[in-house]
């Protein structure tokens, strides 16, 4: 019995621990992008906007389809309205009047109405507008996806940058600690001045501070990436791609030589959507000068009782029905309709100008993104070469310092130069990735 209780307890504990354990993920950059396009909060809502616009499109379509409405109306005349009529109608004295009440205490009407729009120019334009409305949100979803992709690439690169920075700083720290230890021992033997030890201590303190800052930065970078991925910030996340591999795979100067087509950019397409909307608004105002034609058919029953007995058997209900056709012809609006049409025409002209402006700005953005991407490749090669030189200089200064041929200031300067070039090299790799993503976004490359 005790064994069964113990096993049950262990089972419950294991289940609770499994529930409390945060979900874990492991992504390459492409896997992270694919996951974000489905689970990012903005992507989810952009998808819902498309679904809502589809419903809006059907709502507009349904306006021109048959409409059926039914209703029941009950009236309790607890005090009937009185009327006065000549008394002689009932055999009374001529010249006198009698007060009578017409109607029954309880009235009920049950009816159904079928209505159908036959012709309305506004409805035809509304159908066209509903398609443009849906297209706009589909393009908005593509624009959101493009922005999410760029954000994921940037945040993924920031995490890798922080991790690589920490790794290099820890390596520099270990090397410096060993040098500082050897320098202390040399100082104890009276072979060098204490200033050399103090100078190395200053450098080590600076490295420790930078290392702690990068560790905090790494935690924030991970959380930002998780938000962009659409996962809980407390979830476990592992990145499988390496910074150097990503930067190498994004070295593609031929890509920046491709011809740029502004019409393929999503911002251009959205500006074109806006122009189409203004075009339809102009058509809508013009269509309001056309007549509208509609028809309706009504059918119903009514009943009158002095007692509430509508649902008893053998009670009389009187049916009625009618059909109507309505034609509305706009004739004169004191030029108000013309004024609204001209306003819509001006808005259309503004949209056309905005489309031209968007095209020119996109060309400029492309040239800028292309230049920055090409520059990032040049900086990568320069930073890689400078890092190699800084490593050799620092190594020579370290040997001279140990041999007593160089001062601590010269050695520290060489170290600071090395640390600076290390960070510049890491940043140049991230820049290649980010600038390539920015250029891809402009040319609308998936």
Description of the structure:
The chain is 65% helix and 15% strand. The chain has 446 residues and is α+β, with helices and mostly antiparallel strands. The chain has helices at residues 2-20, 29-39, 41-62, 121-188, 194-229, 243-249, 266-287, 336-402, 408-443, and strands at residues 24-27, 67-76, 82-86, 97-101, 106-119, 236-239, 292-305, 318-328. The chain contains nine helices and eight strands.
From the structure above, extract its key features.
446 residues, alpha+beta, Outer membrane efflux proteins (OEP), two-stranded parallel ribbon, 65% helix, 15% strand
What's the CATH topology label?
A: Outer membrane efflux proteins (OEP)
- The CATH superfamily appears as Outer membrane efflux proteins (OEP)
The proportion of residues in beta strands is 15-25%
Number of domains: 1
**Tally the helices: what do you get?**
9
Query: What is the CATH architecture term?
Result: Up-down Bundle
CATH class bucket: Mainly Alpha
The strand order across the widest sheet is 2-5-7-8
Number of beta strands = 8
**Can you write the helix and strand succession as a string?**
HEHHEEEEHHEHHEEHH
Low-confidence stretches: none
Helix content: 55-70%
> What is the 3D form?
elongated
Estimated radius of gyration? 41 Å
Terminal CA distance: 63 Å
**Residue-averaged pLDDT:** 90
